[in-house]
Design brief:
With 279 residues, the chain is mainly α. Helix content is 42%, strand content 4%. The strands form 2 sheets. Strands 1-2 form a two-stranded antiparallel sheet. Helix 2 packs across helix 8 and helix 7 runs antiparallel to helix 8.
Length: 279
């Protein structure tokens, strides 16, 4: 009897707690979650390929804006001249590398001019220096960031990705992050050294790195806007994360053709072998 009494008391307490919790008024937040705006990437889909000119513009944005804080330790200067990427000439890459200094403890002076074989240099000598220059936050390396990030999609959009071969979530994330540095909601107290990003839905230890007209593109074909800079540098970051995308898709297409041809030959062989056999 005592056990039953304790049980019913526990149930009544739980119900009472649930009702009281439901009656609490929770203040509404003015933070609005922004859905990612998907972009039309040249490398999207099974037949997509990198746009060499866009990659060259993206490298320009990376070099003149992003590289001051972010590294790219997985690529070498010579990768910039490889087919399927920005495809700069060898002379351009040599001249570019010569602009940078590499720390080399084996040399008497301890440093030397970079060569095409060298990795992209780190912007800060130590982790402590990087954090000190960025309000205590460590700027992530850009080499694989386009593969390490992704967007959140609602149903049925995410389900359709299995049929559309969508794999540009990283670049869409980077683009939306870069173009959504805005003023914080009125009821949000932004800490010192932090900056509000509407897509991220919170603050970052990074101010908007891009603004209209900050980088001069060659010619007048493409606008010098924040949105265009974001598109180009996101595409370049995708190439850094997957430099073999063009060759991978080409190989996949060739394999599909081979399988279709093989399947047709197998059908014809089967019909030839069993043509004289009654079914």
């Amino acid at each position: 009897m005592n056990r039953m009494s304790r049980f019913f008391k526990s149930v009544l307490l739980a119900v009472g707690f649930g009702i009281s919790s439901a009656m609490l008024v929770v203040p509404a937040s003015s933070v609005v979650i922004i859905d990612a705006e998907l972009q039309d990437w040249s490398f999207a889909g099974i037949f997509g390929r990198y746009d060499k000119n866009q990659l060259q513009r993206g490298f320009q944005v990376f070099q003149q804006s992003c590289a001051a804080c972010h590294g790219a330790k997985q690529i070498s200067f010579r990768n910039l001249s490889e087919e399927g990427g920005p495809s700069f000439s060898e002379s351009q890459v040599k001249a570019l590398a010569a602009e940078y200094i590499i720390i080399d403890a084996e040399l008497e002076d301890g440093e030397r001019a970079a060569t095409p074989a060298d990795r992209w240099p780190e912007p800060f000598p130590t982790l402590r220096d990087a954090r000190a220059a960025n309000s205590g936050a460590f700027p992530p390396d850009f080499s694989l960031l386009a593969k390490a990030r992704g967007i959140t999609q609602r149903f049925p959009a995410w389900a359709l990705n299995y049929f559309t071969a969508y794999q540009e979530g990283g670049t869409d994330y980077i683009y939306n992050l870069l173009v959504n540095f805005t003023d914080a909601p009125e009821d949000y107290d932004v800490p010192a050294g932090q900056y509000w990003n509407a897509y991220y839905g919170s603050t970052l230890a990074m101010a908007s790195p891009l603004f209209d007209g900050m980088i001069d593109y060659e010619g007048d074909e493409f606008p010098e806007t924040t949105e265009q800079y974001a598109l180009d540098v996101a595409a370049f970051m995708m190439w850094m994360a997957e430099p073999g995308l063009n060759s991978r898709k080409q190989m996949g297409f060739q394999v599909l053709i081979f399988l279709f041809v093989l399947a047709g030959m197998m059908v014809m062989v089967k019909r030839k072998i069993w043509s004289d056999v009654k079914h």
